[in-house]
Amino acid sequence: MDTIVKVEGLRKTYGNTVAVDEVSFEVKEGEIFGMVGPNGAGKTTTIECLEGLRKPDAGILRVLGVDPQREGQTLRENTGMQLQQSNLPDRMKVWEALDLYATFYPKAANWDELLSQLGLEEKRNAPFSKLSGGQKQRLFIALALLPDPKLVFLDELTTGLDPQARHAIWDLVRDVRARGKTVLLTTHFMEEAERLCDRVAILDHGRIVALDTPINLVRGLGVEERVVFSVEGALPAGFEKALSGEAQVEIQGRQVSVRDRSGRKTPLVSEVVGLLSTQGILFSDLRTEQPSLEDVFLSLTGREMRG
Q: Do 118 and 82 form a contact (C-beta atoms < 8 A)?
């Protein structure tokens, strides 16, 4: 596969604040590539440098083979962009926005078809202010697809949406890739990256701390499963010591989480349930959870996600 985006040693500072610190990665043709991490990790600054909206302090950037700073017109004609702070005039109708933006591109896609494909036909004459959050995001995706781009940038696309709207947008992103487009997205929702992305770069404090497929990142964590349950009172002091292997116990209020990083022979859930019964501990809501990208993030950074 061809390389669509190539970043080498990207650095961007604002005064004494280092927003992006020596970031390097590549995006291959036809993949959904995600940059994930908490707010302030450097995701938006990185994507805005790639879009030509910000000038990097150092580094080499190539998007579709061109320098975003020197060949901005070529870049804009071949990429679609949905910005984190996207907005339109309240009274502008959906069709008016698409019709206007189509004039910006020499070979614009048929916006009537985009209206239908993105489920906005019924909102054709609706003013922007009357659209729901999910409908606004669908409109921004339609605007991003107007130049019939090879590459689509999506920055924090589902922030502020309810779960139903978020899942609908995920389906649209998959459809965009199915059209033969390459997608580069940023998000601070780890589940979103896990569901959508072929490869993920985890950023923290402006640096990439891990880059791989979601499956490989989770496998590399070495956690087979987690057992979560609630207790009526405090756990006995010897509960954790009675567990075999390298089991670790985390307690948050009434909820207890037990995880093991070792390749154990006895299933963790069987041992936990047996120990709870033996020690006469009253418990409820017991379930097993598979490790996720959020577990990878916590393991790499040692703290909770910042909102």
A: no
